[in-house]
Amino acid sequence: MGDRPSVAIVGAGITGLTSARTLRSCCDVVVLDKARGVGGRMATRRIGEATIDHGAQFLTTHTGRFTEMVGHWEAEGIATPWFSARVGTRGLEDQAPEVADGHIRYRGVRSMNDIAKHLAGGSDVRREQRVESVSIVDGAWRLRAASYETHVDAVILTAPVPQSLQMIEAGQVQLARSDREALDAIAYDPCLAALVPLSGPSGLPEPGAVDPASGPIDWMADNQTKGVSESPAVTIHASAEESRRLWRSPDEAVLSSLLGAAELDSPPIAGASQVQRWRYARPVVSHPDRCLVASGLPPLVLAGDAFGEPRVEGAVLSGLAAAAAIARLSGVAQLD
Q1: Which end of the chain is more exposed for a tag (fewer CB within 10 A), N or C?
Q2: What's the pLDDT tens digit per position in 271-318?
Q3: Helix (H, G, I), strand (E, B), or coil: what is residue 120?
Q4: What are phi and psi of 34, to 5 degrees?
């Protein structure tokens, strides 16, 4: 298969893109994703004049390695501080809109998705390629998508774990019992997101976000106040309980419920609101390590924000760990 190990990464979210960027100096890397764009839940959508971050809303740093990475992004004009406090619950008369906690919340300068696009630069990313199966052929890996097939030395699966397991099962690959049990234990909460362009100001206090302590809304942000949208537009994330309750409901019912709870100062622009359904939005039971190296198989690593720790930082650190594991298993030079 050539002097450089070949690696296929399934998923062009923040984990997969981090792995690809880390490995491409020493491996031949291809990234496959079912979507039309990159980023996964680092997602942004344009609706008319509005730019709406509707997946991950910000990122924070708690480790030296990720702090250094975000510092580079800030210097390159990719990320910028948004606020440095816990946002309050809208409507409580005696609660300040922010309570300082010392952690900077960073946003993408133009959007959260732009951070993912920056990470994808220079990598071979094949979009609109839904991987249907991952199988072993002659001691290596074969990945099949609807209109693409590749044979590689090593694989990193970064899709939500239930989706990764479907690919493995379709390829009739038998995981070690301990690996399968560890992966089956991982669980996620869903999230329904409403993307709502408005006819006027939302009325959300600075910094343009509220984080209710209870009720049907888990998070609400004004993308114009945030600094990414030319016109007023809010993102409303339903709570896990509300998302499960409304999951099979039509979009109109989802929007009616969330807009009724939001009590915005300006009405939505007629016909412009949209709903995004994140089935695997938030890991609630994670794997203790930052990635899982499959036992007894050609190099196969599973990674993502359900490994080690959640959120954007966890996804990035998992991508770095997966890249390091593949480099070790492939016998290539130590990564930086």
Answers
A1: C
A2: 999 999 999 999 999 999 999 999 999 999 999 999 998 999 999 999
A3: helix
A4: -75, -20
